[in-house]
Each structure stands twice: as structure tokens, then as C-alpha cells.
Amino acid sequence: MLIAVAAVGIIAVGIAQVFRATGETVKLGRRLSSFNSYARLLERQMRADFGSMTREGFLVIRNELANDGGVTSLYADEPTPRARPRRVDEIAFFASGSFTSLREPVHPERVARSNAARIYYGHGLKYNPTSQFSIDPVPLDNAGAPANLQPFGFSGPNQSAGSWILARHVTLLCTPGTGELTGLDPDPTAFGNGQPGNISEMPDNDIQIALQPAASDIFRDACEFVPDPLPGDPALVRDGSPERPIFETGVIDIATTSLDEIRSMVLLARPSSGAPATTNLDAGDFPLTMAPSVLFEDATSGSFPVSGGPVDMMQAWMRQGLPAASDGPLVPVPSGYGVHSRRIRTELVPPNYLGVGSAQQDYERTDQVMLTSSVFVPSCSSFIVEWSYGNTYPYPQNPTPPDYFAGREGELVWHGMERWNDLDFDGVQDTGEVMYAQPYDDQANTPNTPPLAFQQYAGRNGATAPPRLVRSALIHDIDTVDQTGLYQQLCYSHFGYIDPTFQPVGANDPDSIPWPWPKLIRITLTLTDPREPINEQTLQFVFEVPAPQ
After folding, report:
1. Would you put residue 79 in left (φ > 0), alpha (ψ -120 to 50) or beta?
2. Mean pLDDT computed over 111-137
3. Where are the beta strands (DSSP E) in 212-317?
4. Which of 294, 446, 455, 504 could lock onto 509 through a cystine, CB 3.0 to 4.6 A?
């Protein structure tokens, strides 16, 4: 009898373990299925975005290690040995298509739409939920925002990587309309708030499109300095103190500009005539309406390009095209000029949706909702952007190519900030750890280095032009080219319009050649399960960059 009871007990325990294992398997299967479905949704949206990219705008990629290059924990109580360096990259480009503002229309017949937009991917910053600034109505110019927003990895709401938010922000490019506005229905349900007259007939202007707030430019400095709105301006829907809308607030998704204006600014904006030609340039050397805020540095890589030359100018404007001043305090900036270590504000929930109570409450509730509109991945512990010209590591030949890399034959060459399979998470490339990507280097032509890239272009009269070496100083920031300053913590890659370094020599040379763009973009992002923050899943997508039209 005792033996039988013991046998039944053993069978019961075994059955329980089987059911438990089955339950865990089903749970894991459901989680994997949900993860795969989510991954397909992310890929579909990103593939649509990258597929609509246009070279009528520029492309800028910013690679950054969070926490000034130090290790970052996944969750609050994670053991220190498990913390590791994490990437918080950014990418901004322009796209053609059909775009509509996410803001609730003030009037049903006045909706902001555009056939061109800036698309931005990067981590957003959450504001301290207990601060008064977070609770108060959102100022369109972000006036009064905390000077220290506690960026990624630092103490505060953005400390743990498992709670980071990957943002996707779309900015419509709209020029003020000139069409007839009279006769529109003065909809009684519109956000009138006591405004005199028919607000549906208010014309567009530099900071208002279709009755919605708009940034006056895509470039940060330009929209922070101009125009100067007057209190109580009868042409503005909102009353109150003057505000110049900026993207960093997280509530602005319209810019009163066009692809043509953006191109003109990048190609033609220059220092004022009194700026010294032989020293570093800072904001004081520019008119207020065109003042890149990051200091230029001397170029020492073969004296190419000259400091303050057209390459520096164009790159500075492209960096200005990011929605917030992302560069941290280690980047030299003129004293008192701007606030840095910023990102676009992104919240998972409206911080004070029901608490707004001013005469402008309808607008302010829309602002609250807009703070959540850019959430793309609510728990993204790493976001990496890399690019490739489509060239590959060579196969062995006789004689052996100078850039032959044994074991990597035929692999695509990827560029960006240095990244390798850091098996021990120590931030140091040890023996046996393979480099996945590194900055493009036009001096590299030795064994175990990535091959150089050459640009093909057409000559005049059907002539065949020789391939042209792509210059690293055209692509990267000076710190990356010279391996100084914030090298290995920060890396920019710029892709513009016309190569300013090209000088026609022969009779068959064209007047200009295009800036060499990548053929492929690789996105690597790591998702965190909010229910079990110890679990991470990494996705990687490769997207083709559309050819020039």
C-alpha cells in the first residue's frame, strides 16, 4: 500500500511538472508570437519610411553611447556586473508622400497636410513626472524647461534602459497658404475659446499653419530666433505671451518651410562678412537667423577640408536638422548659448490631461496628447543605426589586395560608430571579438581594414569618368575623422546634396557631382518586455536607400 501511494505521489508530481512545463512552453510560445507580430509591424512602418526617402533633402545619422560611454542598467535593481554600454542613436531624413498633422484639427475644414516631411527616429526624453514643469501646460518654446533633463543612464526618469522610449517623429513641411479662406463654416464646435470673429478665416503665417502651432523652420537656431510674435497677435489662434514653437517640446509636428528652402540653407548659408577666415567659427559669426550652435573644429586630416569651409558649413546645418540639441556638455558651445543634452520630449501617457483649466484648455489638451504621439517603441533599451555603400570585403587574389581581411570575404562593409561583439561587455575590443561597424576612413588601405569606397559619376559628352575616392571628412564630424575629442562616444555621418570638394579638371568633367549617399541602412534595436524587464529581444533590419530620381 505504501509503495502504491508513493507511486501515485510520484506520478502526480510528474504530471504537475509536465503541466507546468507545458504552461511555460505555451506562455513562451505566445510571447514569441506576440514579439514576432510586433517586429513585423515595426519593420513595415520603417520600411515604408525609408522607402519614401528623398534626396531632395539631406540625411544625418548620429551615433551616441549613453551615459557618456559608461555602462547602463536595464532596470533599477539590476546587478552592476550585468550593466553594459548602450547606444541611443538618431537618424533624420526627408520623405515624399502624403502626410497629415497628428494634432486634432481646430476647424474641420482647416487640416494641415503636406507632400513632404522630415522623419526622425531616436530615443525621446521623459520629464520628471513630479516636477511642476511636467504638470503645467506645455510652453511651445519650452521656456522654463529644466536645464538638466537627466539624460539616458543618469539618475532620473531616463536612468534605466528598460524604460527608454524610441520615438518616431514626423514633421510636415508646409508653406503658409495663400488660398481664399473666407466663407468657411464658423463651426460652433471649434476651439473658439472666446476668440473674436471667425477663427476659421485666420490666415497661415510663419508660426501657424491651418490654425495649428508650427515651427518657423526645420533648423533649430532659426526657429528659436525668428519670428518675434507679439502678445495678443490677432493673427494667432492662441493668446498669451509670445512663443516661438520648437520641436523639442514634443507637441509640434509642422514646420513652415519647404525642401527647396532647406536645400538653399544647407548649400548657401555662410558666415557674416566680418567672420575671421582662419579661426574656429561659432554662433557669433553668423546672423541670428542662421547660427549653427556647435563650434567648428580645425581639420587636421591632410588639411582637408579647410576649417570653416563649405564642408563644415553644410555639416553644421545638417546637424541643426535634428529636432533637439542632442550634444552633451562635453561638446564646446559658446558661453550661455542654448541648452544641450536634449531630445524631443516623449511621454507614455499625457502627464496632466484632466488638469488643464485655462481659457486655452482645448489647445492644451491636444498638447498633452501630442506628448505621446511620437511613441514608436515604449521599451527600447538600445537603438543602433549603421550604413553601407554596398561594397564588400575582397576575396583572396594574386597579388593579395591591400585591404584583404581573412575570414570576412564577401561580407558587406558597415560604417558608423565602432561596434563589435563585446562578449564581456567591458567596452574594449578583445582578441576574437569581431568588429561589426566602424567609421569610414579614407586612409584605410591596409590588411584587416575595411575597403575604401569609390564614387562613380558620369562625365560630359558620354565620357567615362574615373572612380572618385569618397573622403571621410565629407562624411564624418572632425572628432571622428581625427579620432579626438568625443571619438568613440559620438559619431556623425552626413549626406547632403552636392559634393563641395569636387573641382572639375578636364574638359569632360561635370560642373558638380552629387554627395555620395549610402546604399543601405541597418537598424538594430533591442526591445524589453515591460512585464519581465530582465528579458530583451534584439531585432535587426536592413533597408535600401532609394536611388536618386
Report:
1. beta
2. 91
3. 212-213, 254-255
4. 504
